Amino acid sequence: MTRFAFRAAAILVATLSLSACGGGRVFGGGKSAQAQAQQQGTRASEARESTIWDLFSNRQSPNNTVAVNKYLWNASLDVLNFLPIQSIDPYTGVIVTGYGTPPGGGRSYRATIHITDPALDARSLRLSLQGPGGAAVAPGTAAAVEDAILTRARQLRVADGKL
Predict the structure, then answer these.
(1) In terms of residue numbers, what domain contains 36?
(2) Is-above-0.85 flag for pTM?
(3) Among 19, 53, 55, 123, whose Cα sits 20 to 30 Å from the Cα of 105?
(4) Which residue(s) pair with 123 in the sheet?
């Protein structure tokens, strides 16, 4: 008889422990998720509690996604490869370089690139060039560098085969 009582107690403990994972009324501490959602005036499908199974799901947080265009990013690094990189942040889309002289050029430049959008578009690219001591660079020079980056980004996209 003790063996039967031990098995029954073990099954009871396992059942109660498993029901506690559901977040229901048994050990959930109050109202169900649906009742809480109705009380807050939202739809029950929007209200969702996290469970242990969320650790194993393949959901990505929108805060961890990269919102820059990979072709613009790589093209910026390719075109301005003669400049030493000081800081780089793919999550915000900012590349800051140090001073460097382009091949065949006599003047050194420094660049700050900001890629603002995941679209392969000229509006997604912000480029700031500075000369030595923070001197302004001719607008034609900045426009030529932007055009070179955009052209290289298009070439990378065509080479990638995702038209």
Answers:
(1) 2-59
(2) no
(3) 123
(4) none
